[in-house]
Specification:
The structure is a single chain. By secondary structure, the protein is of the alpha+beta class. It is 24% helix and 22% strand. A hairpin with a 4-residue loop joins strand 4 and strand 5. The structure holds tetrahydrodeoxyuridine.
């Protein structure tokens, strides 16, 4: 069940995801997605999906936004918002959940929105429980 917590994401996060969605390159699926992230400095980074004629080579909006965050000097993700025109809230795909896991914490909020408003709120750990991350790479003592 999708849950909407009483707290809301910053308006700038929704606005950035919606603006990014307008730039989506999605000629094959016709499913435009925008994603926006907040980094540890409070900066917002956005991305859209970028599809490819070789279908599996397409990029999700979240992956593009993560690239923007890293390029912009961010090292942590403190909030995520994904916007798409869908009757059901769109959450990051499995691969993107893992990509986000690298930079986000268990309690990092992951918001879903349609083309106008927020429709769901999850946490990263709720979407990706018992996840694998950089900590697991540490050798045993
Ligand atoms: N897509 C995203 O960009 N993010 C998501 O969270 C879900 C799916 C894209 C991938 C593909 O370009 C299109 O949406 C349809 O799956």
């Amino acid at each position: 069940m999708d849950t909407l917590a009483p707290d809301a994401p910053p308006a700038a996060l929704l606005a950035a995801a919606l603006a990014a969605r307008e730039r989506a390159y999605a000629p094959y699926s016709r499913f435009a997605v925008g994603a926006a992230l907040i980094d540890e400095h409070g900066r917002v980074h956005a991305g859209c999906n970028v599809e490819n004629a070789a279908y599996p080579e397409g990029l999700c909006a979240e992956a593009v936004a993560l690239g923007q965050l890293v390029l912009g000097g961010g090292t942590r993700v403190t909030a995520v918002l994904v916007a798409a025109d869908s009757a059901r809230p769109v959450t990051p795909c499995g691969g993107c959940r893992q990509k986000l896991r690298e930079f986000a914490g268990d309690e990092t909020p992951v918001w879903s929105a349609d083309t106008r408003r927020v429709t769901a709120r999850h946490t990263l750990a709720g979407l990706l429980p018992a996840s694998f991350g950089p900590e697991q790479l540490a050798p045993p003592r």
